Amino acid sequence: MQYTVNDDNIRLDVFLARETSLTRSAVKNTVESHGAFVNGERRTKSGFDLKRGDVVDFEIPQPEPLEAVASDIPLDIVFEDDNFAVINKPQGMVVHQAGSYRANDTLVNALLFNLKNLSSINGVIRPGIVHRLDKDTSGLIVVAKTDEAHKNLASQIEKKTARRIYYALTDGNFKEDEGTVDAPIARSRKDRKKMAVDENGRRAVTRFKVLERFGAYTLVRCELETGRTHQIRVHCAYLHHPVVGDAVYGGSQTLYKNGQLLHAKRLELTSPTTGERMVFECDLPDYFAKILEKLRGKTS
Asked: What is 77-159's CATH number?
């Protein structure tokens, strides 16, 4: 659809939310993932300032399938109460259906079978999902069982009071023992399936600390201050130390070929009901731990 702007200095997302049936957050997500055209030029920033007379071309996304179905898939439930659960997601499991992926083997399908309730905030395709992990990233993910808990947990992530800590085995030997990567991330201009550091992207901050050095590889602890798509993978590649096994961002395939060696190991949050500070941890997957054992044997 094409729209003509009759206001001065109005944000793109505000304008489109007013002109369409979408919420402002839905417009924001669509603009940032698919873009909108202003006077023929593609824009991916929802806060882009429009001026009177601008012509905006914007395609309203097609509705998602009616609902996800429950699938009898075992889950490693680290914690569960009436309000939320913490799951140790295995490598290879997609969190929810999206795009052309419509198989019923996602984390959401498993959650619908294993948990009695899930929050409705993200609709019928992503019930309960507060944040995501990439398909080949293993580890801890928090799931909301009520809408109230969902809002609370999402707010903790947004305000950075929840802590998410990952272990990654990366290529090369880091010069620094620790540091911070503060580099904006946007969808790659060369490959729309990838993300990239881009000065026009959204701010992305990752803190890292070297845990072990293996000469050609380094085990690092990464903490997310923001939560951009593929953030740790992109930032590691940006430092010229891609995550081992990450073929998308240039990681080596010698040690492991089945996806990136990236594990969400520790999650800290505040209980939405009791206010208690809670800490969850899970061990590295066996395949990850065995690779480290092999590297330690070589360097001992």
From this structure: 3.30.2350.10
